[in-house]
User: Which sequence fits this backbone?
């Protein structure tokens, strides 16, 4: 390149009428850096100096409020991203404990409710990841929690866990009166003999329980016959910020 000879680690090969060479060789020859994330099976290519012109990621509308105090021992922890992110790259750490596997994360926001009581002290939330343009970020804030006599819950959920549903179905249940309920459904299908799973679509909606704590919401997803539908529910009490979460594993 530019009159210079370069040695390939892997020999090029021909497919049809095209000659294929390693992506890393082409990228690094153009001055880019290549990184591979084994957990998400994703490749990130960044041009040297390009990050200076790309917007950084900030956290906005975070809850609990920074340096605030909540009475709930299981507060809902949430926030939005100022710039779209790669959800597969995001890690959420609470008091040094990685809770990402139990959190809901999208390109625009995140939501997590502890399944255990937090002690009445100061807590730190750290959110780490990359934007969709490859810019890394590491943001954190702190809050203090107390002990609430009121604990949130999600009961009497339908469809029942393990049920078979179609593209349209209704999610219902009971929680604290007037609580905000987020419903996030993800559909997937097994391919290549069940070895790999492909995500077909997602559906996220917020609804609110009535004065008796009852809620019901129609869900519309793209489901494949024999696939999986995972529904994550989170309830947030508006008065105490007490959170509760539940997961429904369904089939299509």
Assistant:
């Amino acid at each position: 390149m530019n009159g210079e000879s370069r040695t390939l680690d892997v020999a090029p090969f021909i497919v049809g009428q095209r000659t294929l060479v390693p992506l890393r060789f082409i990228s690094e020859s153009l001055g880019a850096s290549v990184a591979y994330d084994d957990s998400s099976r994703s490749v990130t290519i960044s041009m040297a100096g390009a990050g200076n012109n790309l917007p950084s990621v900030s956290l906005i509308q975070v809850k609990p409020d920074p340096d605030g105090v909540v009475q709930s021992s299981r507060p809902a922890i949430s926030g939005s991203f100022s710039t779209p992110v790669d959800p597969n790259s995001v890690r959420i750490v609470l008091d040094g404990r990685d809770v990402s596997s139990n959190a809901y994360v999208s390109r625009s926001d995140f939501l997590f409710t502890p399944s255990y009581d937090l002690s009445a002290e100061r807590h730190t939330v750290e959110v780490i990841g990359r934007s969709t343009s490859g810019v890394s970020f590491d943001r954190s804030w702190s809050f203090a929690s107390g002990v609430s006599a009121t604990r949130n819950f999600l009961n009497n959920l339908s469809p029942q866990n393990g049920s078979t549903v179609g593209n349209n179905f209704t999610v219902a249940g009971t929680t604290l009166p007037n609580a905000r309920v987020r419903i996030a459904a993800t559909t997937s299908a097994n391919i290549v003999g069940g070895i790999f799973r492909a995500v077909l679509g997602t559906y996220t909606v917020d609804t609110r329980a009535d004065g008796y704590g009852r809620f019901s919401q129609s869900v519309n997803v793209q489901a494949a016959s024999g696939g999986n539908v995972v529904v994550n529910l989170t309830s947030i009490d508006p008065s105490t910020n007490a959170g509760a979460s539940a997961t429904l594993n369904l089939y299509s």
